[in-house]
Design a protein that fits this description.
This protein is α+β, with helices and mostly antiparallel strands. It is built from two helices and nine strands.
Length: 130
């Protein structure tokens, strides 16, 4: 038996990352959650934010999720979101343009705040990974 968490980061169309990890950090609607081995069971809604996975071996996995769910039980962590992007999949200039466009629409478009949160999360993911 391994001393690692078994982690799955899953988008609607693919398994983005799966493997053993020593720690997972995600942002739920109630705040940031850090998960280590032996964590109490949790089921929580995620917000548009960065997810950090510290694998047993290799470099830290930095990704963004567009909401979704976090499930923790018996040293297994499942992160499920409709859209997941690894930091290296994010085009920083596109995210910056999206952020500026969304800021201009603030107050006139119902989706502007959500677009701002997603763009900011993508920019943070790229910055954390570099």
């Amino acid at each position: 038996m391994t001393d690692a968490l078994q982690v799955e980061l899953v988008a609607a169309d693919r398994v983005v990352w799966s493997g053993g990890a020593t720690m997972v950090i995600a942002r739920t609607v109630d705040g940031d959650v850090g998960v280590l081995r032996g964590h109490a069971p949790v089921l929580s809604a995620l917000t548009d934010a960065v997810v950090e996975i510290t694998p047993e071996e290799g470099t830290e996995v930095i990704a963004t999720v567009d909401g979704g769910f976090l499930s923790v039980a018996n040293d297994r962590v499942s992160i499920l979101s409709e859209h997941v992007l690894l930091a290296h999949e994010i085009d920083l200039s596109e995210a910056e343009i999206e952020l500026e466009e969304a800021r201009r629409l603030l107050g006139t478009n119902n989706d502007a705040e959500k677009r701002i949160r997603r763009a900011e999360a993508r920019i943070r993911a790229v910055e954390k990974a570099s």
